[in-house]
Amino acid sequence: MICTEVGELMQRQLDHDLDEQELTVLMTHLGECKACQSLFERLTLLSGSLEQLPRVTPSISIVDSILPELDAIDRQRAAEAAKPVKSGYWKRWMTAAASVAAAAAVVLIMTNLDGANKQVSDLAAPEMSTQRESSDVARKDMGIMTTQTSSSDESASSVEDVQTESTVVEDSGYSITPLSSPIESSQSEPKGKTESTDHDSRGPIDYTPVPTSQSSQLPQATQLPTMNAAPLPEVNERNEIPDVGISMVPQQPEVDKELTESGEQLEVVSNMQNQFGEETQKDSGTVDEDSNSLLGIASQDTFVEKHFSPDGQVYIVLEGHTIVLYETSTEQQQRTWEVEATGNLSFVEWDNTSSSFVYELQAEDGSSSLYTVNLKD
Amino acid sequence: MVEPTLIKAAQSGDREALVTLLREIENHVYRTAYYILNNEQDALDASQEALIRIYTKIDTYEEKAQFKTWVQRIVTNICIDKFRRSKPTVSIEEHELIFQEKSNVEHDVLAAFAMDDIKQAIEQLPEHHRTVVILRYLQDFSYNEIAASLDLPLNTVKSYLFRARQQLQQLLQDYQKGGVRG
Question: What is the ipTM of this complex?
């Protein structure tokens, strides 16, 4: 046995890599060769010392130190997602499962379009209904005819096509289909007030993106970075605002609700102008602020306006000429009120005790009246 | 060991899970950076960079690789780049740093000297040899795990590790004989 050959055995022995036979060869040689024995002792000493090197730990929490940077990355990603350019962003977040679901949604929509004498002006692919993409959806729904960003994924492209084709037509009737089942993924949605800036006379309003899909499988919307896309500074505090309410001012609330037969819920609520949309436009720089009138022509979006009671127990949704009271915790309908008169309905405010609320009926001749509804009546 | 379910959640866009995951690996990342760069501040910088890269690239991680080797690949690449870029100035600072440390810890001279000898010897190693040693002894990686982390053939990993140990023991012997420290 030559000493150089034993060298490798020594090294591998330090890594506990020798079998019985090799170990015997090594030991036999070490017993005969002083030089190798001495070298092996030094190597063993070295290896033992290396194993005892201190397992140093950072003096600060490195993760804490980069959290602001991570937030910035999230904001940047959200901003990129809101731009009407193709990017790799969608591909990353559009998982295979979501692609399949998106394709399914397309089929459902197509069926719906065939079966009913109206067109849904907006479709959101399942994953797009999360708040991550909501700014995109909202902007698109404002009637801006931009091409939706999408992945190179085929099914996503299909969604895009359908969206583009069916953007404009709005259902003018009051075809109201009450929700037959609660929307699971929004159960944990807002209980608090939103950061309304310019509609003090109104009650707390939370716009919740309508989960048109199995978005309950997705991470909580509050953890998603999109909200940073809206240039409202307070929204950045995601962790502290669990409801991530996006304030909107509905001027002509008109609610169309669609329910596909298979139970896949598709809701379309149109709001001609809203805070969120405006902010998004400014952000993306695609539409002038004074083009709101234009936006009123063909705008719809996928937000349901929930008017939460001050105690958060219940909320009101205006569905055409039906006022629906939902229990917040279960999302179940508790009561409905039909409004017989024609005109535009809008929610005004809750009273402080959560026992009654006020709505406004704006008649076609321009006059408007306020009505108070007592829940105990 | 990072839970696969946590990785899955992080990859699916769960920010909370991703941040939790970063916290779990932060010490491992820092340790490698510290021993490659031999400097706390550089190690913090490199660790931050590595964690941010992991945050943004988590979706590119594929299960066929071990998560820990994927993480170490990222941090070692960053450190080696950093090391190459800042080599001239860093080496001067390092000597000053070592000198200060020695004079400040006289009460613990013997233990510190031995450790310092090893650290100083590691510093003499070429970057890849050094990295292999660090993954072997400070991350307790196997040959295969080191090979996966550094994208090197298994035999190359062994060759680097064996040569590194040979060189280290030689350097340590020289320090003892030569009385490098006075």
Answer: 0.83
